[in-house]
């Protein structure tokens, strides 16, 4: 039977192919951003160095600008209650200068929660904080502190901050409890993975993180990860743990910067984290 003549030229295979390629190119940026893990750099350690000599340099905000120029997708800072590294003035400057994603880490401390709400970062990450610790040691006990965390998450979201994450250990019960607080993201604590002393122990911890990442994603949480990730352990982490949309890495990069400079240290990490999508 002869084909009906509609008056329109019939799309041949080549034009259909071109049409499909154009469609794919339109969605390419979204596709890449779904598949590629973002690299956010924690610049607290730059402030630690500055404060050690009671100096005005090195400036963490200037470091943030350089990190972004070198390919970081965003900047992380932690305003601690004791202000041991980042200070209130740094927060205002970071808010002004950072072009990419700004992640404000904080504990449930009323005046710091107020500052976070006023600052309006893209992401607020709630972490536990103890004065005696050298760095954040464990994830939050979300089960024990459910009520206060739920209130704080609500305050941060109601203030207009789009994304609120809780920093938790890769334990199923903590992940379920995170979801109950109303947080829409989770940062998995990778400290046990980073501290593992043997290849077997590291693989074991990576698989715990993988299970945690899968169940967090199944619950609808955006999955972030961080703590102790470095140039040596990152490949193993990324090879085993799925669904991680961004990582927060600080110490390894600032330490490497002493030898190769901050720009090169960031580029090296960006190549590891973003592979062919790292800036050239
Ligand atoms: N994520 C959180 C919640 C942290 O507290 C820290 C440490 O400041 C990091 C990520 C980054 O860890 P590191 O400096 O070991 O890369």
Short overview:
This protein has 280 residues and is α/β, with parallel strands linked by helices. It is built from twelve helices and eight strands. Strands 1-2-3-4-5-6-7-8 form an eight-stranded parallel β-barrel, surrounded by nine helices.
Set out the fold topology.
Blueprint: H1 13-35, E1 38-42, H2 44-52, H3 60-69, E2 74-78, H4 88-97, E3 101-106, H5 110-119, E4 123-126, H6 146-158, E5 163-168, H7 172-180, E6 185-189, H8 191-195, H9 199-218, E7 222-226, H10 234-240, E8 244-249, H11 251-260, H12 262-274
Parallel strand pairs: 1-2, 1-8, 2-3, 3-4, 4-5, 5-6, 6-7, 7-8
The structure holds pyridoxine-5'-phosphate.
Characterise this structure.
- With 280 residues, this protein is of the alpha/beta class.
- The protein folds into 2 domains: 35 residues; 241 residues, TIM Barrel (Alpha-Beta Barrel), CATH 3.20.20.
- 50% of the residues lie in helices and 15% in strands.
- The chain is built from 12 helices and 8 strands.
- Strands 1-2-3-4-5-6-7-8 form an 8-stranded parallel beta barrel, surrounded by 9 helices.
- Helix 3 packs parallel to helix 4, helix 7 packs parallel to helix 9 and helix 11 packs across helix 12.
- The termini are far apart.
- The mean pLDDT is 92.
- It binds pyridoxine-5'-phosphate (PXP).
- The site of pyridoxine-5'-phosphate (PXP) has 19 residues, from strand 8 and helix 11.
- The site of pyridoxine-5'-phosphate has 19 residues, from strand 8 and helix 11.
């Amino acid at each position: 039977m002869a084909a009906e003549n509609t008056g329109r030229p019939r799309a041949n295979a080549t034009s259909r192919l071109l049409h499909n390629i154009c469609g794919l190119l339109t969605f390419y940026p979204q596709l890449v951003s779904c598949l590629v893990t973002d690299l956010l750099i924690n610049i607290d350690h730059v402030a630690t160095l500055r404060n050690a000599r009671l100096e005005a340099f090195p400036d963490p905000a200037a470091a943030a600008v350089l990190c972004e120029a070198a390919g970081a997708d965003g900047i992380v800072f932690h305003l601690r209650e004791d202000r041991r590294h980042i200070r209130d003035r740094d927060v205002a400057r970071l808010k002004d200068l950072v072009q990419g994603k700004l992640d404000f880490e904080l504990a449930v401390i009323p005046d710091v929660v107020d500052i976070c709400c006023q600052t309006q970062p893209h992401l607020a990450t709630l972490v536990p904080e103890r004065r005696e610790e050298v760095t954040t040691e464990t994830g939050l006990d979300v089960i024990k502190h459910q009520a206060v965390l739920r209130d704080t998450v609500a305050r941060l979201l109601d203030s207009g901050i789009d994304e609120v994450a809780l920093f938790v250990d890769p334990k199923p019960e903590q992940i379920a409890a995170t979801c109950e607080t109303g947080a829409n993201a989770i940062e998995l604590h990778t400290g046990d993975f980073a501290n593992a002393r043997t290849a077997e122990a590291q693989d074991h911890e990576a698989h715990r993180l993988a299970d945690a990442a899968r169940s967090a994603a199944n619950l609808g949480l955006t999955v972030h990860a961080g703590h102790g990730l470095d140039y040596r352990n990152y490949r193993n982490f990324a090879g085993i743990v799925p669904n991680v949309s961004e990582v927060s890495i600080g110490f390894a990069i600032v330490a490497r910067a002493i030898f190769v400079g901050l720009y090169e240290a960031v580029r090296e990490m960006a190549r590891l984290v973003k592979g062919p999508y790292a800036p050239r």
